[in-house]
């Protein structure tokens, strides 16, 4: 969760807040025993919208509904979301319940159902208890609270949020995002729910282009356990209430906006990786001198996704052979005689052979909460980056008893 202030030359990270024109609420409707389990986001005016969605063939009813809704006119005004019940693999009744949820929200807010997105997360296979959903929607209010960020959590240890402010055309523009994700994380696109709101005024179609591009380098480059879920999406809304001159690719402030948008997604992606079920360490892999960017991304993702690498990091074991094996399993171009690897800036492998490192010093480096692995493929000038976490006994415990 982002709580501190941070400045860069282009933007300022601020305490989490909604951009102009957004309201929300979150509450305990009764889907879970105690915790908040339902919430919504609302824009006082229709907002341009874009989304990316899970590639799992068993796409859940709310995910398909939201995708189709956004594709109609690329506009949303509200998103309703619930945890505990995924409404996935629930047949025609599940589709009907998602549509009913969309309609109930539209009626309460007095807007067209085509302006309402629906998101669910939780146990696959259970039908939504529509009596609870209906009563929960009746209780939801339009407030400035941020409880919706907690209402979507499942096995997450905490809410994941960030707000960034940037000056565009002399106007303060805010970009705020939150997400949930801890297990079943291997996005393509993306094993989690993510929501990004902004008051920026942006050209039609450009929001989708930015979102798709930035998701590829952030959410699609994280992994916890290699499993892609059925419900996952990232949705962004831009309501234009900052009243800046419409952003286009030719706008002087366009690169700064994209940079700030990337920071929002990158921060949230890393928060998910760090909060992986049962995890104790965040793992970042940076690849340099790859033949192509795709090669760099593949190698980085393969390393953070390797169960053997993840287990070694949990055990604080400098077993570099597992990293080399993960690299070699890809089809990336690799100089197999001149590949080098560093762990938290300590040389681990030089020219594809063990470096002369101090075991005690390396063990100390592996005790850190964040492990950074740098790989030099010596095959070009491109780079890659990915994030993951260690694999622990607690991950098995959590997932062995998830339903029961």
Give a summary of the structure in a few sentences.
The protein is 31% helix and 26% strand. With 404 residues, the protein is of the alpha+beta class.
Mean pLDDT: 89
User: What would CATH call the architecture of the largest domain?
Assistant: 4-Layer Sandwich
- Gross morphology is globular
Q: Secondary-structure element sequence? A: EEEEHEHEHHEEEHEHEHHHEEEHEEH
Distance N to C terminus: 29 Å
Largest sheet: 10 strands, mixed
Low-confidence stretches: 1-5, 183-191
| CATH level-four homologous superfamily name of the largest domain | L-amino peptidase D-ALA esterase/amidase
Our count of domains comes out at 2
Percent range for β-strand residues: 25-35%
């Amino acid at each position: 969760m982002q709580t501190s202030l941070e400045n860069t030359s282009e933007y300022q990270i601020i305490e989490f807040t909604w951009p102009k024109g957004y309201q929300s609420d979150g509450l305990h409707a009764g889907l879970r025993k105690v915790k908040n389990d339902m919430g919504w986001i609302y824009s006082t005016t229709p907002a341009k919208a874009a989304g990316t969605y899970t590639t799992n063939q068993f796409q859940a009813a709310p995910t398909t509904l939201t995708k189709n809704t956004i594709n109609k006119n690329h506009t949303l005004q509200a998103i309703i979301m619930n945890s505990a019940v995924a409404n996935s693999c629930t047949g025609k009744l599940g589709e009907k319940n998602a549509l009913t949820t969309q309609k109930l929200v539209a009626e309460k807010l007095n807007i067209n159902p085509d302006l309402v997105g629906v998101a669910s997360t939780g146990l696959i296979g259970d039908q939504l208890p529509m009596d609870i959903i209906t009563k929960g929607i009746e209780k939801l209010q339009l407030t400035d609270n941020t409880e919706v960020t907690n209402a979507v959590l499942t096995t997450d240890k905490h809410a994941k949020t960030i707000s960034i402010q940037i000056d565009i055309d002399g106007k303060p523009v805010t970009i705020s995002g939150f997400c949930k994700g801890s297990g079943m994380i291997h996005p393509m696109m993306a094993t989690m729910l993510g929501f990004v709101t902004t008051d920026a005024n942006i050209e039609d179609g450009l929001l989708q282009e930015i979102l798709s591009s930035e998701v590829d380098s952030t959410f699609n480059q994280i992994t916890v356990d290699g499993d892609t879920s059925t419900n996952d999406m990232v949705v962004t809304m831009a309501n234009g209430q900052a009243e800046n001159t419409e952003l286009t690719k030719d706008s002087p402030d366009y690169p700064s906006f994209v940079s700030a948008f990337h920071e929002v997604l990158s921060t949230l992606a890393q928060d998910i990786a760090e909060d992986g079920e049962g995890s104790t360490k965040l793992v970042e892999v940076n690849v340099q001198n790859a033949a192509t960017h795709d090669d760099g991304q593949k190698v980085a993702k393969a390393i953070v996704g390797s169960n053997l690498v993840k287990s070694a990091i949990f055990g604080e074991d400098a077993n570099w052979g597992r990293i080399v094996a993960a690299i070699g399993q890809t089809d990336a171009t690799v100089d197999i005689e001149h590949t080098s690897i560093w762990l938290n800036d300590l040389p681990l492998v030089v020219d594809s052979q063990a470096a002369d490192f101090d075991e005690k010093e390396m063990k100390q480096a592996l005790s850190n909460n964040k492990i950074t692995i740098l790989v030099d493929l010596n095959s070009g000038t491109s780079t890659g980056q990915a994030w993951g976490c260690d694999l622990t006994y607690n991950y098995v415990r959590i997932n062995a008893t998830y339903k029961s």
